[in-house]
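Why does residue order matter? Because the sequence determines the fold. Keep that principle in mind as you read this record.
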Amino acid sequence: MKTQTVDTHRNTRKPRSLAFFCLLALLLAACSSPAPELAVQPQAGGHPPVILRMVKREQVSDGYLWFNHDVYFLDPDGDAAAMTYVITSSSLTYTPDFKDTPIEASAEQQRVEVLFTETIACWQKMELAYEGRIRDRAGNLSEPVLFTISCTAPQPLDTRPLLISGLSTALPIGLVLLLGFWLLFRKRLAERLPALRSMILIFFLFMLLRLLQLVIHEGGHSLYPLVRGVPITLYVHPFFLGGLPGRSSSVPTSGRISWALPPPSRLAC
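Structure:
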């Protein structure tokens, strides 16, 4: 019997050739596609803010002399963050504490022109001067701008609007109460005097509670400046008048609380 040998050796060159051509194709595709370029972002904070000009205005409102300093500035990088302060001269017996005021204008507005208004009022006789610098997020500071306040004497307070407002509110309420009292007790003459006495006592009790509430509330606010040695005057009243609220200091308030100076109203728009 004759046997026939069969060659079982596979051709290994074909898979190797295919792998080689695949690697070559991938290499050619990678070399032909351009490498992505890295975008270079401009770094903020390279230029300090620039103060263009300042306009000072004065006005009398609610018996106080107000000083308004309009500061116009720009920031080429658009990253102005806050206005900082340094006291240069003061006639006060204590050192005022000025906190930085944040600037909320957008970067686009800062690159053109921004108005920052520094507002403060006279509440006693004094001479005060302090410098302001605009600081950006990188720590750069602008050139200083000088704010000056000269308060000779407190302005007289016009009480006529307060009296007119109080009377216009109290008269209608009083007429309604009198009408209700007359309707309730017009046929009960013997009960009129005790009822009237009770209403008056309740009214004065509410005034006493209001006075105690203001003393505790405003007295608590006064503890902080008192510990720091800042002179402060506590005055309260039991009257519910919108134009004459209870205060722990004889200073006008228009924003955040500052015990060293009247709370300023600083705007950046």
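The longest strand covers residues 50-61.
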